[in-house]
Amino acid sequence: AQKVTQAQTEISVVEKEDVTLDCVYETRDTTYYLFWYKQPPSGELVFLIRRNSFDEQNEISGRYSWNFQKSTSSFNFTITASQVVDSAVYFCALRGAQKLVFGQGTRLTINP
Amino acid sequence: NAGVMQNPRHLVRRRGQEARLRCSPMKGHSHVYWYRQLPEEGLKFMVYLQKENIIDESGMPKERFSAEFPKEGPSILRIQQVVRGDSAAYFCASSPGLAPNNEQFFGPGTRLTVL
Fold this sequence. Notes:
The complex is a heterodimer of chains A (about 110) and B (about 120). By secondary structure, chain A is mainly β. Chain A has no helices and 12 strands. Chain A has strands spanning about 5, 10-15, 20, 25, 35-40, 45-50, 60, 65-70, 75-80, 90-95, 100, 105-110. By secondary structure, chain B is an all-beta fold. Chain B contains no helices and 11 strands. Chain B has strands at about 5, 10-15, 20-25, 30-35, 45-50, 55, 65-70, 75-80, 90-95, 105, 110-115. Chain B starts with a strand and ends with a strand. The interface of A and B includes residues 47, 52, 93 and 104 of A.
């Protein structure tokens, strides 16, 4: 069975601090995809990144970066110089064949 | 090119009533997925449909819930005799095909409140 664990339920930091959101996954598939989504207070799901299981390169997009380590089954997400607008619930997700399996989410609060 | 459309965005029902949630996939997409997000929880897969076929309904509750994706028109998630525990956000996603790397695009969700 597939499983995604986001051990951090809530994180609160002061603006401009760096923050890392952890994601650990379990799967028996050899080919799979990992995702991060952002859910702001308005409730919609905003796609942030997709990574396939054969690509362990880290990725940076502006203030966002992702660290995929297959050896530890982790796909962590770092926000550098956080801003109040980053406040949201962040979900990590895993997809094998078709359906997405989501973690429980991490509620991130950035305080001014 | 419009994204995935869901309506209504908010739906209020009294216990025992029926709820119908609609999802119009992106143009050219023939695969639809429904997910449910209970309060303070992550999204849980419910059902995966292609046109006129249910492919995987392993996440659907055994009773009161049904889904369809007809040849013409939107996909419908139907909940009969709603109970308070059905209060949740229901998200629909669509993708163009079967390949594993086909992206699932999410709609804005329907928030169901059962009084």
